[in-house]
Each structure stands twice: as structure tokens, then as C-alpha cells.
């Protein structure tokens, strides 16, 4: 479906740098290896005085190292405030995401799940849905990805169930996903925290078993117009 030549460009929207790698790093790397151009839109940034000076630059540096490993062609950092997206005018957020999507004109968009516990993820997910919806043309296929420590906790605390119905074999690109995750030294945790290298592998193996694969990433198909 995604690797048969019909998809030329893909946009992954990440509320925070590292979400794209944890949620879809294996697929992004596989797309790149297939000759498909991939682009990342990072919505938020760490900001002072909540984080030490230089944190924003460090976060961008870590992200771009991860993007390079995954074979990403281009990126955009929108610079909205982390954990304060609920203070940003919704139209401003939608317009910024839409501008990037329209600039790239992708056939596939990846976004976080709206049931995630993290409110930034919820807001970004809904904004992406608005920004990429069909409006006078077919529009891109939209998939929701799952983000460890946010999607599963959303199910527990919010009842926002992630219902995967698309499984991507990442057996050949899983090492790239792990290497990219290691770039986020300030975000990765020690096991048994879900956002750990071991946690990433446990989820990949579980999704793989569900689909008869060794290692997989799971997505929820929102809309696809063929």
C-alpha cells in the first residue's frame, strides 16, 4: 500500500522531538530506504524559564541527528510552547501545520493518536486531522501512530483506546529506530519505563506477534482515498 510507488512524499507530525522516532521511526526509515521522501514537522519546543538555557538548541541537535539516521529529507520546527499548546489559538496551530503539509504535498501523513494521555498529543492530532482533511481534492492518507508512555496511558486514564489496523514490518529497520532513539539522551529512560530502549523493543515484538511478523509498528487508519 505504501511501498508500491503510489506514495512519493510523507509528512510525520510530532508534538515533541522524539515522538516521531518512538512512534514511527521504523516505518520512516523503511520509507526512506524505499526511495520515498520523508519530512518531519515538530510542533513544540522547550522554552525558558521552564527549561535551562540552551535546551531548545540541544533538542534540535538531538532531533536532527535522529532524522539523519532515519533518512529524513527535511524538517520544520514550528516553535510552539511545550505543555502549553492549550494556550495557543487553535486556528494558529492548524494554519501552521497546514502550511507545512501543503508545502510538501504528501500522499501520507502520520500523526499522534488523539486519545493519548499527553494533552499536546491530543491537540496536535486533532489539528493534523483538520489540516489534512479532503477539501476540494482527495487529500492524503492519514494514520495515527502510538507513542510509548502516552498512548497506553491514555487508554488507562482517559479511555482513549488505540485500535491498530495497519501493521508495518520494521524487522529490517529496527536497528535504525533504536539508533535514532539513542540520540534523545535527555528523553530516553531506564527500563521498565516505557520510553526505554527495552520498552521500544517489547512493543515492536508485541505488534509483530499480532501481525505474524518479528518486529512491527502499528498504526490506526483514519482515512484513505484511493
Protein topology:
Elements: E1 9-14, H1 19-33, E2 37-45, H2 55-70, E3 74-81, H3 90-104, E4 108-112, H4 119-132, E5 141-145, H5 151-157, E6 166-169, H6 174-182, H7 197-211, E7 216-223
List keywords for this structure.
single chain; 226 residues; alpha/beta; Rossmann fold; seven-stranded mixed beta sheet
Task: Report the total helices.
Answer: 7
Distance between the termini: 10 Å
Q: Bin the helical content.
A: 40-55%
Shape: globular
Q: Got a strand count?
A: 7
Main-sheet strand order equals: 3-2-1-4-5-7-6
Query: What is the second-level CATH architecture?
Result: 3-Layer(aba) Sandwich
**What number of structural domains do the residues give?**
1
Main beta-sheet annotation: 7 strands, mixed
Name the structural class.
Answer: alpha/beta
Q: Multimeric state of these chains?
A: single chain
Please state roughly what percent of the residues sit in beta strands, choosing from under 5%, 5-15%, 15-25%, 25-35%, 35-45% or over 45%. Answer: 15-25%
Poorly predicted sequence stretches spanning 5 or more consecutive residues: none
CATH superfamily name?
LmbE-like
